[in-house]
Amino acid sequence: MLSERQIQILESAKRSGRVLVDEMASRFEVSVQTIRKDLNELCDARMLMRVHGGAILSSGVENVGYDARRVIAADEKAAIGRAVADLIPNQASLFINIGTTTEAVAHQLLRHSGLMVITNNINVAAAMRPYPEVEVVIAGGVVRRSDGGIVGEAAVDFIRQFKVDFAVIGASAIDMDGSLLDFDYREVRVAQAIIGNARHVILAADSSKFERSAPVRIGHLDQVQTFVTDQAPPAIRAICEAAEVRLVEARPEDVARGSAAPSDAAA
Predict the structure, then answer these.
(1) 3-state secondary structure of 81
(2) I need a surface site. Which of 23, 124, 138, 227 has the fewest CB within 10 A?
């Protein structure tokens, strides 16, 4: 369990890419030893990585733990989930792949009727299973212990049996050249099959993904039709405009104010 201070430290790391011990001690009016202890616990949980004088958001060749990813940018993911759900009509068929943001979408889709959801995400299947208006189809394959994702060639072959209206996909990192990146090549193979077998692909990813890196390429931003995020940097806006990708920005404050819908961002 994270303390409120640790959650705020994580959010600071998400916004700026790193946190410094002295700055955090001043901000929270505690000793540097207390902040170091917080950072050590967050690093032990693979949420942050220690560097001289502080810590950075974890990235590289191994993803942050699934429960930790639920905490990072939780409000942004909830807003994105609501915005994506608003794009999907009743009576639609769709893929939902692995990820905490796609799981947030699934929770928002529970208000829909007549959905057929094909997923390789056990968390999504568990959340949607009790609802009679949603038919859940789950892929077969290897269950990854770290996050309940179903991966491997059996999952790829299963996905290829379908041609659906929508795909909701996530990414662990998004490069400024538009590359969509992840950590597990087995998961990437499933994601690529999902992209290739949907009529309309929606990428759902919060802005912390622009500050991270991952080693395996899923594809490119120009392969999706709609990108829903909380805030896109100028380089990503330019790519979306050039590739005619609809860019939707869904901010937590808009949801809190009860705004009817997120805005299409002007490039």
Answers:
(1) helix
(2) 23
